[in-house]
């Protein structure tokens, strides 16, 4: 239903920043297709990715729209962004409680996802961090029909994964090899196959309740 509020669309090439930290916020935007991420840039050029955006995600949870951007948003793949009318969305929420609940759920999901990222950065080891990322992406994509059990497109580079997980690309590569050697995942090109989902969930400590999921969500083989 949100697509009926689109007033414009924009195509963004891979690696191009769409919104910048400190920039005045002018738009309510939705990822129509592709992957993007929010990140913080350190003074020396290092980058920390703080959240991933997939098709259907709002670029900023509705209701948390400060006057200026507090981080930068970049396209991880070729990206299509849809700009929405914020005023029309507010009016729609008044007459459609289901839309309002969905927006509140989106806000809650964003909070829980970032809580888990903090837990990963603080307490999970490298392999657990990568396993958790794979689990979260699988269930997020499966929920919107973008994961063909048990495979899904995984266009993230090891550098981007490292910037998200607080690791070096070398540690990401080693962790991936370990998961492969245990028979948990297979990565061919840009397609990730989860071969033993239940074991991957147990290894990562993936929290279904944080995402309003059950253990059998997304796959009958969990």
Kindly describe this structure.
The two termini are 31 Å apart. The strands form three sheets. The chain has a four-stranded antiparallel beta sheet with strand order 2-6-4-5. It has a three-stranded antiparallel beta sheet with strand order 1-7-3. The longest helix has 27 residues, at 97-123. It contains six helices and ten strands, in the order βββββββαααβααββα. It has helices spanning 86-95, 97-123, 126-143, 158-165, 169-181, 197-204, and strands at 6-12, 17-19, 28-33, 36-41, 47-53, 72-75, 79-84, 151-153, 185-188, 191-194. It folds into two domains: 2-102, Sandwich (Jelly Rolls), CATH 2.60.120; 125-211, Arc Repressor Mutant, subunit A. The radius of gyration is 18 Å and the shape is globular. α1 crosses α2 (97-123), α3 (126-143) packs across α6 (197-204) and α4 packs across α5. A hairpin with a 2-residue loop joins β9 (185-188) and β10 (191-194). By secondary structure, the protein is α+β, with helices and mostly antiparallel strands.
């Amino acid at each position: 239903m949100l697509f009926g509020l689109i007033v414009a669309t924009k195509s963004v090439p891979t690696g191009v920043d769409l919104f910048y930290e400190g920039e005045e916020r002018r738009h309510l935007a939705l990822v129509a297709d592709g992957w993007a991420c929010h990140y913080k840039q350190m003074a020396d050029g290092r980058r920390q990715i703080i959240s991933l955006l997939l098709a259907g995600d709002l670029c900023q949870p509705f209701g948390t729209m400060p006057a200026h951007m507090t981080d930068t948003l970049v396209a991880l793949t070729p990206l299509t962004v849809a700009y929405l009318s914020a005023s029309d969305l507010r009016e729609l929420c008044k007459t459609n409680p289901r839309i309002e609940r969905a927006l509140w759920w989106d806000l809650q999901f964003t909070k829980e996802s970032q809580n888990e990222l903090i837990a990963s950065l603080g307490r999970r080891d490298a392999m657990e961090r990568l396993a958790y990322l794979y689990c979260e992406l699988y269930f997020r994509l499966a929920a919107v029909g973008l994961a063909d059990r048990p495979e899904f497109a995984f266009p993230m580079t090891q550098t981007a994964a490292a910037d998200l997980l607080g690791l070096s690309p070398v540690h990401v590569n080693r962790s991936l090899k370990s998961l492969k050697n245990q028979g948990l995942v297979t990565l061919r090109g840009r397609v990730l196959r989860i071969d033993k989902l239940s074991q991957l969930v147990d290894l990562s400590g993936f929290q279904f309740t944080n995402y309003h999921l059950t253990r059998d969500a997304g796959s009958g083989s969990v």
